[in-house]
Structure formats: C-alpha cells, structure tokens
Design a protein that fits this description.
By secondary structure, the chain is α/β, with parallel strands linked by helices. Helix content is 51%, strand content 21%. It has eleven helices and seven strands. Helix 2 packs across helix 3, helix 4 packs antiparallel against helix 7 and helix 9 crosses helix 10.
C-alpha cells in the first residue's frame, strides 16, 4: 500500500488502526457517559421552534465471525435526518411528497442490546435529537429493538419496517393459498389493509382461516398472525407516511450491509478485540464524520 507516495506495509496500517481505534472507542465511551448523565434533563430541554426539524433512529443486526466464538451478531444503530421531497411513485408513476432519510450517522456494537442502545442514544443526542420537533423509531419485529426504543426513545413514533411487514404478509398468503392467482389476490387485498393500519384485523382473519387448514400449517399461520397482532400499534403506515415520516428502515439495513462488507469478506475471521477497535473507525467513515472524530482523538481528555 502507498500513502502519499510512501510505501506502507499492511501490518503497519493494521497497528495504526488498532491504536487509533482504541482511542475512538474511548471517545464513544465518554459520549455515552455524558448522554446517560444528561438524561435527567431530557424533559426540561426546550424544543426548537418553528421549522420542521424531524429525525429518526433505526436498529438492526448482522452476523460476523469471531475466532474461538463463531458467528456473533453485530448490532447496528443509525440516526438520521428526515427530508420530505417530491418523489415518483414506482407503482403509480405519480409524483408525490415522500420522506427520505438523510445525513445518516452510524454506530455499532459486538454484544448485547443495552450497549447498542446506549451508543445509539449518545449518537442521537450528539446530533440534535432533543431539539427535534418530531421523531420516529424504525425496526423489524425483534423484541430487543423495541425494548431499547421504549427505554431510550420514549417520545418517538414507532414503526415496523414496511418491507418486513409485507414479507410476513406474503408468507401468510403462501400458507393460506396453494394457487398463485388466489395467493396474489389475497396478498394484494391484505396489503392495502395493512397500509391502512388494519394489521390487527388481518391477524384475526388469519386465526379464523387457520381453523380449516391441515394441522401442519396451523402453527405457521398462527405465528404470522401473532407477528401482526403483537406489532399492530407499530403499523400505522398510511397515517405516518402522510405525517412526513419514512416507513422503511433501508437506512439501517444499508448500514448493516456496509459493516458486513468490511467485516465478513471471504475468509475473514476476527479476534473480538480487533473487530471492536475497528468498528468505530468504520462507523466514522460511513457517517462522513471521520475528520472531526480524528481531531477529537488527538485532543487530551478533559
């Protein structure tokens, strides 16, 4: 590898990444401590006035391989701004206002839900979450995600990613109908109901439909019904889209793919310490904030 016309060995690059990654880890830990210490003032801080200042948060996970441990979940947090702009609808071809995630900021943790919750909350506070006029928390159906949102992002709207919800609806259609035409007709009809916020009614219909199915299918149909029923309060897609919120969690799923591309290439096997030190560097590069965080890393702690 050559940097500025000077040859630099791979081992030298790795040593520097480990050294400075550890310093970036220390910065993250200080910011987490400041965020936790400041939570008592959360309700007292005034909102910004007038302008539509909207922000969102997403959580998800992906798998990477850790030596002597096997496959482990790398949890990803994403904080983003929300911008509404005219967008061409893929199905109708019409232009209409649609919310988009911008200025995505990422963090990651190789471990439990509580730690990624702390990191994401610190990231959100640093990027003006408390000054936002309105906020939304997006995720799939994983229980750990909603626990973190309930604990830390308490005043936010919550929404199950639209594409995860429709995937479950598609699975239900396949379980109910063997013929493609009947399956597609049922799916299209229920998809419209799902978008309109009728997830609980769909769940009830699935339970009734399961009665006449072979026992081998009943458990799977009930599983899909419970997914919709348990999350129905987080499935108000039409109302929240009309209120200027995104209904898909593509921003955090994109983050998962970018982390996975760096940490799960062919033959990659990481030590836990090596992965943990590189994570904040990767997050800073993806967030386009490496220069500012690099400057902090050179400053002595206060």
């Amino acid at each position: 590898m050559r940097i500025g016309g000077i040859g630099v060995s791979d081992s030298s690059v790795w040593r520097q990444a480990q050294k400075w990654g550890e310093k970036l880890q220390a910065i993250e830990e200080r910011e987490m401590s400041l965020a936790e210490a400041g939570d008592s003032q959360r309700a007292e801080k005034p909102k910004a006035a007038a302008t539509a200042n909207c922000k969102g948060v997403g959580l998800d996970g992906t798998m990477i391989y850790i030596r002597q441990e096997g496959w482990k979940e790398l949890k990803i947090g994403c904080v983003f701004d929300i911008e509404v702009r005219a967008t061409k609808d893929k199905e109708t071809g019409k232009w209409q206002p649609k919310a988009h995630a911008t200025h995505n900021q990422y963090t990651a943790h190789l471990g439990g839900p509580e730690q990624i919750g702390q990191k994401t909350w610190a990231l959100a506070r640093r990027h003006g979450w408390l000054e936002a006029d309105k906020t939304i928390a997006l995720g799939d159906g994983a229980i750990w995600i909603w626990h973190q949102f309930d604990h830390r992002f308490v005043n936010s709207e919550q929404l199950v990613d639209w594409y995860h919800a429709t995937d479950h609806l598609h699975t239900a259609a396949s379980l109910l109908h063997a013929q493609q035409s009947a399956r597609e007709a049922w799916y299209d009809r229920q998809k419209s109901q799902l978008f309109a916020g009728q997830a609980q009614q769909i769940a009830e219909e699935l339970i009734v439909a399961a009665i006449d199915k072979p026992w081998s299918l009943v458990e799977e149909i009930v599983t899909e019904a419970l997914y919709l029923d348990n999350n129905h309060q987080r499935m108000n897609y039409q109302a929240l889209q009309a209120d200027g919120y995104p209904i898909g969690s593509g921003m955090v799923e994109s983050g998962c793919k970018q982390f996975k591309a760096r940490f799960d290439g062919p033959g990659m096997r990481w030590s836990r310490q090596g992965a943990q030190r590189l994570l904040p560097i990767r997050a800073a590069v993806m967030s386009h904030s490496f220069d500012s965080i690099w400057a902090k890393a050179h400053l002595p702690p206060n």
